[in-house]
Amino acid sequence: MDLKLDGKVALVTGSSKGIGEGVARGLAREGAIVIVHGRNKITTEEVADDIVAQGGRAYAVFGDLTNDDEVQRLVDDAQSFVRPVDIVVNNAGGSGEPEDWTTTSPETWASGYDRNVLAAVRVTTRLLPSMRVAKWGRIVNISSLAALMPPAKRPDYSAAKAAMIAMTASLAKEVAMDGITANTVSPGTIRSIKLEEGFRKVAAGQGLALDAPWTEIEQRVLPMFAKVPMGRVGTLEEIADAIAFLVSPRASYITGANLRLDGGMWPGL
Fold first, then answer.
1. How far apart are CA 127 and CA 119, in angstroms?
2. What is the pLDDT of residue 269?
3. CA angle 258-157-137, nearest 5°?
4. Which CATH superfamily is 9-190+235-261 part of?
5. What pLDDT does residue 177 have?
6. 8-state DSSP, 268
7. CA-to-CA distance for 11 and 32, rounded, in angstroms?
8. Given this model, what pLDDT does residue 125 score?
9. N-terminal to C-terminal alpha carbon distance within the chain
10. How many of the other CB atoms lie within 10 Å of CB of 207?
11. What's the confidence (pLDDT) of residue 1?
12. How far is CA 22 from CA 26, 36, 175, 184, in A?
């Protein structure tokens, strides 16, 4: 299926590593002109350069999304490379310190809300005017299954990610008549470098070799962390493919949705 993304300009925040990098690479494979974002200039440029080396089109922007001035600068840079941004994937954020209800503090909650929810707000509100003029745009906010199935630990993270789902639903209604869609994607357990390193350390404690095949590591360790009906973790490619469809013209009637990518973990309807 041709997703008709050739030449669309996509800004993916927090795309110098992890899920964001996977999404940026996936959109580039579909023909989009990708703007890679990160705080570290070297790693961000490495991702953009590699996308170009693989035959894609990419640029790099840098900045702290909790700083208004830096957000304005990187958005201005992004809009100047080719033309105004058509697609934004608000992926940057993160869980922060592994606090629980015995150690959590209001400061932690404020910080988590700032780097997840407000970071997405800062970027989105700056890109909306040009999308409205063009009468076309796609906004995807990356939440988490933790927003729907919050664990006891990191309550600030679950609350911030839940806020992103509500924020997206509100935004979708606001821009529905402007040719713009807004959706949320909530990943479950996804294989990244960080997750694989963690799984391998746990597996080593269970007697497996650190360099054992991933399938053996996955089968041994995953049940200790999550009950995934599919019996495996998701891949970055699966996240990227789902987002590529959501931001494409093919998904023009999907807005305000929260797409769970969790291998069946969600127990609800």
1. 13
2. 62
3. 35
4. NAD(P)-binding Rossmann-like Domain (3.40.50.720)
5. 98
6. -
7. 10
8. 98
9. 29
10. 8
11. 81
12. 6, 11, 27, 17
Residues 59, 113, 157, 253: which is the catalytic one?
157
157 catalytic? Reply is yes
Q: What pLDDT is stored for residue 96 in this prediction?
A: 76
pLDDT digits (tens, 9 = 90+) for 35-77: 999 999 999 999 999 999 999 999 999 999 999 999 999 999 9
Helix axes 18-29, 41-53, angle to 10 degrees: 30
Residues 107-129 have a mean pLDDT of: 97
The torsion angles phi and psi of 10, rounded to 5 degrees, stand at -125, 125
**Where, residue-wise, is CATH 3.40.50.720 in the chain?**
9-190+235-261
For 113-225, list the strands marked E by DSSP: 137-142, 180-187
DSSP 152: S
Sign of the CA dihedral with 127 first, then 129, 130, and 136 last: positive
